[in-house]
Every structure is written in C-alpha cells, then in structure tokens.
Amino acid sequence: MAPKLRKAALTAHIGCSVGWLGAVAGFLALAIAAVTTGDRQVAQAAYIAMELMGWSILVPLSVATLTTGLIQSLGTAWGLIRHYWILMKLLITVLATAVLMMYMQTLRHLADAAMGTAPAAGEILPSFSPVLHAGAALLVLVVALVLSVFKPRGITGWGLSRKQEATESPS
After folding, report:
1. Which of 98, 85, 96 is nearest to 17 (CA)?
2. Are the C-beta atoms of 103 and 136 separated by less than 8 Å?
3. pLDDT, mean over the chain
4. Which of 119, 128, 130 is nearest to 49 (CA)?
5. Which of 4, 61, 76, 161 is disulfide-compatible with 20, CB 3.0–4.6 A?
6. Whole-angstrom Cα distance, residue 124 to residue 108?
7. pTM
8. How far apart are the C-alpha atoms of 59 and 21, rounded to whole Å?
9. Lowest mean pLDDT among 17-26, 57-66, 103-112, 123-132
10. 3-state class (DSSP) for residue 23
C-alpha cells in the first residue's frame, strides 16, 4: 500500500474504532440513566434513543471498524495472521460486532416496550441488560485499544514461516 493510502486507511481505522468506543460510552450513559431515573418518560426516551443509536451509530461504526481493520492489516506488512495481537483484535472485533447485531433485537423489543407497543411492556422495563452489555462492550473495546497501542510480541506459526522465507529468498 502506498504511504499516503496507508495513512488514510490507518486514520479511517482509528477514527472508526475510537468513534465506536465513544458511542458505546454514550450508550452506557443512556442505559444507566434508564435504570436509575425515577422519571418514566426519561427512561422511555432513553430506551428509544438506545435503539436508534444502535442502528444509526453503533452498528455502522462496528462494521466500519472491522472493514478498515481488514484493509489496514491486509494492505500493510503487519498482515492479518502474522501476529497474535492482530488475530486477537480481529477476533474481538468480529465477536463484538456479532453480539451487537444479535443484541439489536433486544433493543428493538425494549424500544417497543418503551413506546407501549410491546406486550407486557411494564414487565420488562426497566431493564439492566443494556447496562451489562454496554459495560462489557466498553471493556472489550478497551482491550482492543490496549492491544493496538502495546502490540504484544508474538508471531504466529504462519508469520514465522513467512519471515523465514523472506530472509532466505534473495530479493
């Protein structure tokens, strides 16, 4: 990848990743407000806003983070499966995105309950589930951030063989 293109891809990846982390923090604030407020209207608005935020911010940023991470790893010397820290970040991002996509159904149900369009709405609200999911997501994304910054040593078997091939072949 050309240096300017590599920097553009890195900038996009960092922007999406940090945006996702910040959006999860904002989502967590809404989730905490929904379960701690004494005002039913505030709680209902928070559940509706969480579902909207999920589809319009969290899902696009998670997919963009995954996409830009793949572009970044495949287009640079770091590679996708050469280093364990990159594999861990890939696994974290794929799992976090998958859990988010599945959790969107729960958020839809909570938003419907908040709007009064779900059966037994009074029985499911307030829900501590968004607080738990957002807290776990925040922790997982911080782990990915730490891996990005510290890049722990460790080359995979495939990465080691590629490294040996590069040193043995006369180029």
Report:
1. 96
2. no
3. 90
4. 130
5. 61
6. 12
7. 0.87
8. 12
9. 123-132
10. helix
Q: What is the pLDDT of residue 168?
A: 74
Distance CA 115, CA 107 (A): 12
**Whole-angstrom Cα distance, residue 163 to residue 14?**
27
5 burial (CB, 10 Å; 0-12 / 13-18 / 19+) is exposed
Q: Comparing 128-132, 137-141, 165-169, which segment has the lowest mean pLDDT? A: 165-169
Cβ partners under 8 Å of residue 155, min gap 6: 82, 83, 84, 163
Output the CA angle 119-122-125, nearest 5 degrees.
110
Q: Token pair for residue 153?
A: 């040593």
Higher-scoring residue by pLDDT: 92, 83: 92
Q: Where are the alpha helices (DSSP H) in 37-156?
A: 40-53, 59-74, 84-115, 121-124, 129-150
pLDDT classification of 152: cutoffs 50, 70, 90: confident
Residue with tokens 């729960």: 106
Tell me which DSSP letter residue 64 carries: H
Q: Which two tokens stand for residue 133?
A: 């999911």
Confidence band of 12 (pLDDT split at 50, 70, 90): very high
Residue 139, CB half-sphere, CA atoms under 13 Å: how many? 6
